[in-house]
């Protein structure tokens, strides 16, 4: 069965397994480079600063516009002085202010009254009146009392200095 001319039976050749370098360890490979995080952190902080700066500029701009426009909350047409007199007991100037809500929503009012001499040359102080909530088209009266006594022989004039209306909560 064996052929005498072929003394050895040949087996198919198998490739040799890859050889390990000296020491039995695979060759050292460098780990992939990590991306640096600090440029992204700086970029994020820069964007945050720009957004905050923009918000500050917008806030200051709107406040400056409000001041330039002379406070948009002024509504002198909503108030009138009904009476102006010197309180007989305390000697303080007193103004009775009538307020009518001419807006379409419930509002609160802060009213400042200036007390002056009849000719307007001497100011005798100021008084304030506050109305907590007034519904649309409602009317009410409120007293504003000054803080400086006026001699009995002097007469006083009352002038509306400011009428501020704010939407009620």
Summed up:
Keywords: Membrane, Transmembrane, Transmembrane helix. This protein has one helix spanning 38-68; strands at residues 79-86, 93-100, 107-116, 123-134, 139-145, 157-167.
Number of helical regions:
1
Cα-to-Cα separation, first versus last residue? 113 Å
Q: If you compute it from the alpha carbons, what radius of gyration comes out, rounded to the nearest whole angstrom?
A: 45 Å
Residues in helix, %: 10-25%
- Flag low-confidence runs: none
Structural class: alpha+beta
Spatial order of strands in the largest sheet: 1-2-5
Q: In percent, how much strand structure appears in the residues?
A: 25-35%
Number of strands: 6
CATH superfamily grouping of the largest domain = Immunoglobulins
| CATH domain class name of the largest domain | Mainly Beta
| CATH topology description of the largest domain | Immunoglobulin-like
Mean pLDDT: 82
Layout: helices, strands, pairs:
Blueprint: H1 38-68, E1 79-86, E2 93-100, E3 107-116, E4 123-134, E5 139-145, E6 157-167
Keywords: Membrane, Transmembrane, Transmembrane helix
Transmembrane segments: 40-64
Biased composition (Low complexity): 1-13
């Amino acid at each position: 069965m064996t052929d005498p001319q072929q003394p050895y039976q040949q087996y198919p050749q198998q490739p040799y397994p890859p050889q390990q370098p000296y020491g039995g360890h695979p060759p050292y490979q460098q780990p992939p480079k990590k991306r640096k995080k600090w440029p992204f952190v700086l970029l994020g902080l820069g964007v945050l600063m720009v957004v905050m700066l923009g918000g500050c500029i917008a806030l200051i701009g709107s406040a400056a516009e409000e001041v330039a426009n002379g406070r948009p909350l002024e509504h002198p047409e909503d108030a009138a002085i009904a009476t102006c007199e010197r309180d007989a007991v305390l000697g303080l100037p007193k103004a009775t202010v009538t307020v009518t809500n001419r807006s379409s929503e419930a509002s609160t009012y802060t009213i400042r009254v200036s007390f002056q001499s009849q000719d307007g040359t001497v100011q005798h102080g100021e008084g304030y009146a506050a109305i907590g909530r007034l519904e649309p088209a409602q009317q009410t009266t409120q007293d504003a009392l000054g803080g400086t006594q006026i001699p009995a022989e002097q007469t006083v004039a009352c002038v509306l200095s400011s009428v501020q209306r704010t939407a009620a909560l």
